[in-house]
Amino acid sequence: MQLHPALRLQPLLAAALLLLLAATSASAQVRIKDIATFEGVRENQLVGYGLVVGLNGTGDSLRNSPFTQQSIQGMLERLGVGNLSDDQMKTENTAAVMVTASLPPFARRGSTIDVVVSSLGDASSLRGGTLIVTPLTGADGEIYAVAQGPIAVAGYAAQGANAAIVEGVPTVARIENGALIENEIGFRLEELESVRIALRVPDFTTAVRVQDVINAALGGGTARALDPGTIEVYPSDKSDIPGLMAGLENLRVNPDSVAKVVIDARSGTIVIGAEVRIGRVAVSQGGLTVIVKEDVEVSQPEPFSVGETVVVPQTTVTVEERRTNFAIIEGDVSLQRLVDGLNAIGLGATETISILQAMKAAGALHADLEII
Hints:
single chain; 3 domains; 6-stranded antiparallel beta barrel; 7 helices; flat
């Protein structure tokens, strides 16, 4: 087994990592990089306000979007165009938009990033528009990038006098490599005294397993679990922090998770975790169906007689009750046996959701029940 190409550690340390990877490859599940991130190595959100021009009559109506009109006036004044009255500004080819982007870690000045453009006013479509120079600021108020360029809209909208059709969302667009980074975030890996690993799903068991794997590779006392989501690593050699991080993220560990059942009641989706267990229960699910049928009959008078034709409704109500029996699901069963037991009862998704909720209420479902 070969180490990651970016691993540039001392020979003794590299050999220790290699032996650990070979010894744990049979039982390990995932790499540390797949379940955790390094503290400080993250994206930063950017946002800006700008104008999209060149729309074919699908922009903001200035009467309903006064901020668009003020933005147009301000832009024209900066470009040397004199003041215009409200009556002179009747354009429908401009839209006010919010521009968002994510500044990746260690992004350097001059590189480009993608931006998302979203309509702020009542524009019906941004198709065919061009974003004018828009500064993008971070949470600290500093400008980190500038966006500009033609936008690409995935959806479309078309309408006539009496009908209209909209596909997708034509008021949200994207510009590939649409922003140029003008400012960098100061962060130097070589200045770190320690490296912190943050688990995406905090768990005490997983944190301790990550700690043990790192200590086995780098030596006892190198890593310490601070809490369920953070493991701090104190390297003995701080001359190559990027190489150390490359070696750490490729170590493999078997993560643990809490027993959980997730239910999406809208779509009827049920996801049951592998560690879910239930107590011994007897389950019966019955159904009561009420059918109401309306028949319309017409009553007419006899020929050459005095009378009126009336409509006489005929209502038929039928009640059907499905015969059901109890099914016993053994306690402390595996996931496969639990699913087989529920399927043996012949239930659909809706009935299964009701049974799982009833099991939780009865204290027989030993797992977290999350309904989304």
